[in-house]
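Protein modeling request. Please complete all fields; requests missing the sequence field cannot be processed.
Requester role: graduate student
Desired output: 3D structure, token encoding
Chains: 1
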Amino acid sequence: MLVPFPFDGDGVRAVVTTRHGGVSAAPYDSLNLGVHVGDDPDAVAENRRRVADALGVERLTIADQQHGSGVAVVTAENAATVFPATDGLVTNVPGVALATLVADCGPVLLWDPVHHAIGAAHCGRRGVLAGVLAATVAALGEQYGSLPEDLVAGVGPCIGVASYEVGEAEAEPFDTSLTRRSRPGHAYVDLPGAVRRQLGDLGIGTVHAMDVDTRISTDTFFSDRAARPCGRFAAVAVLT
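Delivered output (240 residues):
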């Protein structure tokens, strides 16, 4: 059910869920955590409860992700909120589990072991271009004094460059080193490469990338490119 990042352990839990260990029926089988994809809401609620139980927390905090750069500060009082139009979450409250839902987009977790704060960012193509990573790192600094060089980042499974073909108009905003032409009018975009480059440009001290292409790993993770409809898995961080 849970795949840990290398920094999962003392002080923080940092994991990615798989598609296994839940109660959802096909095509959402079985640990779908997304309520917006057509699955039975009761099954999704049970799946979220199972992940929360596995992490030893009361609930998962999950925003209404819209592929933008909005960031919310999560407290003990508002942790049950579904934050509207929000793709980044930050907190310094132990037991508050920040989760970002994906099925090809890049899930990024951030951990500040100096100031004991965490962040989670939903990094799809549009979110990367909108600056969600920079906004999340900035929020950690503004709220908790986090310095980029102290941060540890985890990049979870997401669609690989060989699996992510888009129209030339969608690829054009990316640096040419992150794209390559496929067929006329189309190009491949290196989404995980773009995420890692932005983390480097932001000065993040340590980056751990799982380097899993969701499009060709549907035995373990959901992929919207591989099958529609499909479920959503999550990257989750919680201070212990």
